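WARN retry 2 of 3 for item q-0093 after timeout on previous attempt; input resubmitted unchanged.
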Amino acid sequence: MKNTLVIDLEAEKQEILKRYRALLRACKPTMQKGDKKEIRKAFDMALESHKDMRRKSGEPYIYHPIAVAQIAAEEIGLGTTSIVCALLHDVVEDTEITLEDIEREFGKKTAKIIDGLTKIAGVFDYNSSLQAENFRKMLLTLADDVRVILIKLADRLHNMRTMDFMPRHKQLKIASETIYLYAPLAHRLGLYAIKSELEDLSMKYLEPDTYKFIATKLNEKKAERTLFVKQFVDPINEILAEQGFVASTYGRPKSIHSIWNKMKKKNIPFEEVYDLFAIRIILDSTPENEKADCWKAYSIVTDLYRPNPDRLRDWVSSPKGNGYESLHTTVMGPKGQWVEVQIRTQRMNEIAEKGFAAHWKYKESSNDNGLDQWIMKVREMLSNPEANALDFLDDFKMNLFSDEIFIFTPKGALIQLPLGATALDFAFEIHTDVGARCIGAKVNHKLVPLSYKLQNGDQVEIITSSKQMPKEDWLNTVVTAKAKSKIKSSLKEEKRKVAEAGKELLERKLKSLKITYNTDNLLKLSYYFKLGSTQELFIDVANGKIELKDLKEYLASEKEVENRVGEKNEGQQIEALLNKVKGPESDILLIGEDLQKIDYTLAACCNPIPGDDVFGFVTVNEGIKIHRTSCPNAAQLMANYGYRVIKAKWNKQQELTFLTGLHIVGIDDVGLINNITKVISNDFKVNMRSITVDTDNGIFDGSIMIFVNDKDHLDNLIKNLLEVRGVTGVTRFDA
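OK item q-0093 returned
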C-alpha cells in the first residue's frame, strides 16, 4: 500500500512540472529578461505553501493556481506581473504567508494586486451581503489596477470548469454569482470568449436539463453544419483570394446560453433558432487599410448573398465602449436561411477575444479609450461613500450589460450612454451641476421632458434653471449609475439640512414637556411614530407632521411601552429562523411534511411545484419563501444573500395540489378547445381554475391555470396536450 502512495506522489510531481512547463510556454510571447526567474520564484512559493492542500476532487491544490495563471496568459494575454499574482492569488488567504512577505519578495505592485484578490474575511452583516462587499472591494482595486478583475475572472473561470465535485448548494450559489456578476463583467471588459463560457457553465449547473438538451441537439447537427459552412464560405474565400486578401473564414457556433435566451425571448423551440452559428471573416490588414478592407470584404459577401438591410451593425466606424470593433451583417444563405457574418481584422479579433489586455498592446494605434473612460466612471461610482453595497451592485450591474447608444452635444461632441438612458442621464453625464439644475431638454431641437428616452444619434441640449433641485422621483427616471449616485447624495444633503432644523425644534418641544433629550428617548420616539431612523423623526418634526399634541400622546403611551419587551432586531430574527429551520443535524428543509412546524410559503414569482429543483430563502417578515432554482430572481438572491439561502427538497407527501399555468399555442381548428379541455378533465386529478383564449387569423393562443400534484404530473399532462391535433406548443409559465 505504502509503495503505491509514493509512486502516486512521484507521478503527481511529474504532472505538476508538466503543467508548470506548459504555463511557461503560454507566457513566452510577453516574457522579457529576468521574467522566468520571477515566475519560478512565485511557483516555488505557491508550491511550498499549498503543499499539504488538496482540492475537492482530491487533486493537489497547486493545480488550481497554475491553471488560473495559464488562463491569464493564454486566454486573456496578461504579462508576467499578472502571472506571478495568479500563482499566488490564494496564498495570503489560505496559508501562513502574509502580504508583507509578498511585498518583500515581489514588490509593492504585486502585493497590492494580491490584496485586491484576497477576499475579505468580513463579519456577517445582516443588512448587506458579503458577496456585494467582496465585489465592491475588488472594484476598488480595479480602479487602481484592472488586472485584479482579469485575474479574478480567470480564477472564477477555472472554478466553474472544475465544479463537478462541489456540493449542489455550493454549485448553485457560485453559478448564480457568476451569471449575475462575473459574466456581465467579462462582457464589459470585452472578453467575449470568457463571457460565453461563464454563461454556459452557469447554465450547466442552474438549468442542467435544458443545457443537456441543447448541447445534444447541437451535437446531432454538427456534421450538417460543417458542410453548410464550407459551402457558404468557399465562394467568399475564392473572391477574397482573387482580390489579394489574406483572410481566414470559419463558422463559430452560438453559445448554448445565447440559444436558450433566444428561445425564451422569442418563445420558440430549438428547431426555429436559425442563427445557430455565425460566419467570421478575419482579414490580415495593415492599420491604415483596416476600415477600407472590412468594407471591401462586406461588398464581396453582399454581392454573393442578399443582405437584410435592417441587420447591418457597424462597430468599425464607432467602436463599442469596451473597444469592440467589427462589422456585422445578416445575409440570406443559399438554402433560404439567415446567416450572420462578422467581418474584422486580426487586431480587432484579438481585442474581441482578449478584451482589455489586447488593448494595451495596441494602445498607441488606438485613439479610442472607451475602457479608460469606463474605469473613470467606476472610480466615480466608488467615490460615493454612502451607497449601500447592494444598491451599488444593482446600479453597477445595470451598466455592465446594456448596449451603448451614441448621443451628440449641441457642439457635436460624442457621448456614450447605456441603452434606455434618458435626457436626465445625459445632463448628469455632462456635469453634476447641469444634472441637478436640469428642467428639460431639446432633442433634435424639439422640447422633451426629463424622462425622454434617448435614441441612438440624438443631438441633445439641456435646459437648466437655478431654482431647480433634484427630486426623489428622479431616481426612477435615470438609468446610469453616475446619475443615481449623484441624485442620492444631493437628496441626502437636502435631507440633512431639513433634519438639522427639525432637531433644534424637537429639542425645544421636548424641553417644554420635560422629556430628557437623549439618544434613548429619540429611539423610543422613532419607534413610537414607526419611523426608520432618528433622521426621519427630525424631518417629520421640521415638516410639521409631528406636533406638540403627538408628543403628548407619546408621553401618555410611554407608560405602557415600558412594560412591553423590546422587539428583536432583524439580524437576530433571521438567525433564529435559520437555526429553527436548519435544526441541529439537518441542513435541508423538507417541504410538504408538517406545514405547521415551519412557516414557509411558495414564491409567487415562480410558483414552484413538487419535483422542481428548489431552494429556501429566509425573508425578514414572511418566513421562508420557496423558489425554483430557475426562477428569474434566483441568481440575484443567491449571489447577494448567500447566507440566507437554505437547501430545500420536496418530501413525499399526501396528494396536495399546486397552482401552475400552461400557455398553449396552435392552429385554430373546430373543436380544438373542446379537445384540450377533454384531455385536462380526463385526467381526474386536475382541476382547472381559469382559461383565457385568443384566436387571431387562425392562430390559437390560450392560457390555462390548473392545479397539479407535482412536476411529473405536469410533464405528463403537457405530453398529452401536445398530442392534441392542432396544438404546436405547450409551455409552463409562472403566474
